[in-house]
Description:
Layout: H1 2-23, H2 29-50, H3 58-86, H4 88-111, H5 117-136, E1 147-148, E2 151-152, H6 158-180, H7 184-205, H8 207-210, H9 220-242, H10 245-253, H11 255-266, H12 275-293
Helix pairs in contact: 1-3, 1-9, 1-10, 1-11, 2-3, 2-7, 2-9, 3-4, 3-6, 3-7, 4-5, 4-6, 4-11, 4-12, 5-12, 7-9, 10-12, 11-12
Amino acid sequence: MAILFALTAAFCFAALGVTVKRGLQRNTIFTALTVAFACAALVTALFTLASVPEGVTMGAVMIFIAAGVAGEGVGRISFLTAVHFLGPSRATPIQTATYPVLSLIGGVILFSEAVTVWRAAGAAAIVAGIWAIASDEEKPDVGSPARRGGRSRRWVYFLPVLAGIGFAVSDLVRKTGMAMVPHPAFGAMIGACTVLVIGGVVLSSSPRLRSQVRLEPGWHWFLLSGVLGGCGVLLVFMALERGEISVVGPIIMAQPMMVVLLSAVFLRGIEKLTWRLVAGVALTVLGVITISFSGG
């Protein structure tokens, strides 16, 4: 059952990027964030009402708020913006690779952990994969937001890295909150609602940003994005509750391959898939899984 939950979570996260890219064809990133966050908050609230948690403390709520700011705030906003500029097939593998790479580097520097052959091979595969993905963007599709005025915006590749960092920090913080209130839906709801409130305050105080929130044709894709994001987070926790992270983690981290398949079907004519891009995604996934299994 844990493997099924993990596979479904990976599919949700993969489909999330694809649906956002479809909606962004005529809508702004601000519309995407507003609609997706509102829908995710509603989904997690419904799951919470279906099983109301007991023994909720203010300390746990504050921890879930912090986790929401890191994950749904920094992580999700950075990732969706990266999807806007780079497309899901480029943004997803970089974001997915961030956590294991940072864990590997941190373990070596902070805890003097040994760099085994498998870890070195995994890191090399990730570097090669990201290089292939980034170099493939030198000839982007016409009208790609990653190119303006004939120049490639290489800085946007930092966005999926920042997203990976945000999600990693959120997972670590949320684990503390889960120890106090073991209710995934409640924690996810608090995080989503926190970011929604913060976003509402920012938009209400800035007429310029508020004017960017317009429901143009295709905005309904963001409703699906919000449902996928909310369900994906819940499925991750359900998988971790029923299985070992050494099994669940690599399955969820393999989502870039699902993104490529979904992009080929639903983003035909919107996102250009080349053999170099597909090879880069495959190398990155292989590297992530190799590092994940090399621990111990």
